[in-house]
Write a structure and sequence with these properties.
- The complex is a heterodimer of chains A (about 350) and B (about 375).
- Chain A has one domain: ABC transporter involved in vitamin B12 uptake, BtuC.
- Chain A is about 70% helix and about 0% strand.
- Chain A has a two-stranded antiparallel sheet with strand order 1-2.
- The longest helix of chain A is centred in the middle third of the chain and has 29 residues.
- The relative contact order of chain A is 0.19.
- Chain B has a domain of about 230 residues.
- In chain B, helix 3 crosses helix 11.
- The termini of chain B are far apart.
- The chains are: A mainly alpha (about 350), B mainly alpha (about 375).
- At the A-B interface, helix 7, helix 13 and helix 15 of A face helix 6, helix 11 and helix 13 of B.
């Protein structure tokens, strides 16, 4: 057993998460190699794998992985959520409003309150999505679109252009760990929501695969009738999970406003909700798979920045900016028959005789 | 007996209108609630909205002018719905149509109108068709869900459109191929040549162009295609039950790709018409939003071409009156976006409307076809 351990770990990783995980690991290995050896003198390698590129990757990854976790929670219970974009935007806006109206509070209190507000509004949007798709039997993809359009309209209607949020989360280096070369400055010297996002990956993973709640959630998403037969309240699980998913999307919005940018901009999510969906699919509805996929997508976004900063002008900047979107399309296209969504996804569940 | 049949005849026409009109009404009421909650005066807003849309000749002109692109993007989404495909990509297809149309429109000096204008319009359609075909092809051959692909393509199209007219950067970046060299730092194309402009029906200040006929013709054509041709029958069959269609020998893959291409072509035509008829040039700020509203228009119109015409007209009026509303009552024009989202919510969930107005459940399925059940298979 132990003799074959390294092979089987690799094999298991690959079997469970596909090549995504391998690519993400490769990225990490390259980064360590480049930054610890004289290779970092090479401009191109520095652009591709330098500390700054990887720091940026993590910053870009956080909203994507939170969005993907949001999608996983909803879809594992059988509700398709393409409204992540809207929930994220609503959360970002709520966080911004909360921050601007508590500017006079101590910074930490104000920020924490704002994060709570963002998650509450995100959760509310999730609950609305669940209500539409369960109670009103709306097509779930259309319901998600409603959420997006509603969030776009409401945030630009209510947005006060003169409001300014003062202050945002700053980095908290973790003592000891942040001293590790290469990995330290990338992973252990970040603002709180980044840590929280990484912790959430583990929490959702453990929750889904090692708790009763997770088992029931998956049962509801795979075979609601069977779940119902053994006494699980199918729609309750769907309501709760979709609302929790909304809260995670709201947290992603909070990250954008309170940690990354510091202000709100109209339509600031810029397709991140949809890229998260792709990350969820790419990661085969698994939290760690989603993290790996989000890292890859985040990397393309970081690369876009690094290339622009490095002054690459041979390729027009618009084409460089297309990178994350094109990679997303390529990723979701390269998955024929290799991913499998929860079986009961998108279908309204009705108890026998109620229809 | 005669009266009985005539009432059922009227019923037959009125019944499909019931849910959409009640949805519109509910959305306006809910919009009023939002306005009251945020301290605005809904009466002033709606009277301003109505005056702006229908108050005078200019108002009517504005409404009709704004209706045209909604008809075409609405048809684009509705056509895809008939095949159970969700085309969220109308805005990208719109942009590609605009770019292709303007590329023909600003070149080929000296061509007569009756050659140049159709050529430019066809270019617009082709641009949209190419952009629409991609998600269709990917769906058929790789199983990639069209919702994600079309949305990603929207961003790509918008960046591509931005690049074509890019004025160049301060660090010596090369300007885009369609950029107007006389425009200085402004990123836009030169004006479309006169021979490629759609003629005015009513010139400035009314600015209503002959594209309105094209939109009407497109609606009739789509209706004919869906309900009167073998291809339309195949499309509807694929939309209702893909597996049954496959067993019946219908070329499902071909139908999906063709439908997406045609849907893209309609949205591309919308872009072409807006560019050649109204803006007379392309700049990054033109386009985009109309494509997304096409979803609401299509659903409000119950995915029927005639319904789409009516719904587009309602949306044209909402958009046409928005500026006057903001000017007269001080209510931000963005409230229109909220109302449009509420329309979508109410019309997509007829159950809400039935609950509010205590209507009886209809036996036939009235919600149109379901879009999709999962990301999974084709």
């Amino acid at each position: 057993m132990s003799k074959n351990a390294p092979v089987s770990v690799f094999h298991r990783l690959r079997k469970r998460y596909g090549n995504t995980m391998i690519l993400a690991l490769l990225l990490v290995v390259m980064a360590i190699l480049v930054n610890l050896t004289p290779l970092k003198e090479q401009t191109w390698l520095r652009v591709l794998f330098g500390i700054s590129a990887l720091n940026f990757t993590l910053r870009m990854t956080v909203p994507l992985v939170l969005g993907a976790l949001s999608g996983i929670l909803c879809e594992r219970s059988g509700i398709i959520n393409i409204g992540i974009e809207g929930m994220m935007l609503a959360g970002a806006f709520a966080g911004f409003v909360a921050k601007t109206s508590t500017n006079h509070w101590p910074l930490a209190a104000s920020l924490i309150f704002s994060v709570a507000a963002a998650m509450a509004v995100g959760g509310l949007m999730g609950a609305v999505h669940a209500l539409f798709s369960i109670r009103f039997r709306m097509d779930q993809i259309i319901s998600g679109t409603v959420i997006i359009i509603l969030a776009l309209g409401a945030t630009s209607y209510l947005y006060n252009r003169d409001a300014i949020a003062e202050g945002k989360f700053s980095s908290i280096p973790i003592p000891g760990l942040s001293q590790i070369p290469v990995i330290g400055p990338i992973l252990f010297d970040n603002p709180p929501i980044t840590y929280l996002a990484l912790i959430m990956v583990v929490v959702v993973h453990v929750g889904l695969f090692y708790t009763r709640w997770g088992l029931r959630t998956r049962a509801v998403g795979e075979h609601p009738r069977a779940a119902d037969t053994v006494g699980i309240n199918v729609n309750l699980y769907r309501y709760v999970n979709t609302s929790l998913g909304g809260m995670l999307a709201g947290l992603a919005g909070a990250f954008l406003v309170l940690e990354a940018v510091g202000q709100f901009q109209e339509g600031m999510t810029a397709g991140r909700g949809f890229i998260s969906l792709a990350a969820m699919i790419f990661g085969n509805w698994n939290p760690f798979g989603a993290l790996a996929a989000a890292t890859l997508f985040g990397y393309t976004q970081a690369l876009q920045n690094e290339l622009l900063l490095a002054g690459v002008t041979q390729v027009p900047r618009q084409f460089i900016s297309m990178l994350p979107y094109v990679v997303t399309i390529v990723a979701v296209s390269g998955l024929v028959g290799r991913v499998r969504p929860p079986a009961a996804e998108g279908k309204v569940y009705e108890t026998e005789g109620s229809a | 007996m005669a009266t009985a049949t005539s009432t059922t005849g009227i019923r037959r026409i009125l019944r499909p209108l019931l849910i959409p009109s009640l949805a519109l009404l509910s959305a306006l009421l809910a919009g009023a609630v939002v306005m009251v909650l945020s301290g605005d005066d809904p009466m002033a807003a709606y009277s301003g909205l109505f005056q702006g849309a229908f108050g005078d000749g200019k108002g009517w002109a504005r409404t009709i002018r704004k209706t045209i692109p909604f008809v075409l993007t609405g048809l684009s989404v509705a056509l895809a719905f008939k095949v159970s495909l969700f085309n969220i990509g109308a805005s990208g297809q719109f942009v590609m149509g605009s770019v292709f149309a303007v590329a023909v429109g600003i070149n080929f000096e000296g061509l007569p109108v009756f050659i140049h204008l159709p050529l430019a319009l066809i270019a617009g359609i082709v641009g949209g068709m190419l952009w629409g075909a991609i998600p269709g092809i990917l769906k058929v051959y790789t199983g990639a869900h069209e919702v994600i692909v079309t949305i990603m393509l929207n961003y790509v199209a918008s960046l591509f459109g931005g690049w074509t007219v890019y004025a160049g950067g301060t660090q010596g970046q090369t300007p885009g191929p369609l950029w107007d060299r006389t425009a200085g730092a402004i990123s836009e194309t030169p004006d479309v040549l006169h021979s490629a402009q759609i003629p005015w029906l009513f010139g400035p200040p009314y600015r209503v162009h002959a594209g309105v006929f094209l939109a009407l013709a497109a609606a009739i054509l789509v209706w004919w295609l869906i309900y009167k041709t073998p291809l339309g029958f195949e499309m509807r069959t694929v939309g209702h039950n893909m597996r049954a269609a496959r067993y019946a020998g219908i070329r499902v893959n071909y139908t999906i790709i063709l439908t997406m291409a045609l849907a893209g072509g309609l949205a591309g035509l919308a872009g072409g018409i807006e560019t050649l008829g109204l803006n007379h040039k392309f700049a990054p700020e033109f386009g985009g939003a109309v494509g997304f509203d096409g979803i609401t228009v299509a659903l409000l119109g119950q995915t029927h071409p005639i319904g789409v015409l009516l719904a587009a007209f309602m949306f044209g009026a909402l958009d046409g009156g928005a500026a006057t509303m903001q000017f007269q009552s001080g209510v931000p024009a963005d409230i229109i976006q909220i109302i449009q989202a509420l329309v979508l919510a109410f019309v997509a969930a007829p159950l809400i409307i039935r609950m509010i107005f205590r209507l009886r459940q209809q036996t036939a399925d009235d919600a149109g076809s379901a879009v999709s059940t999962s990301w999974g298979g084709t």
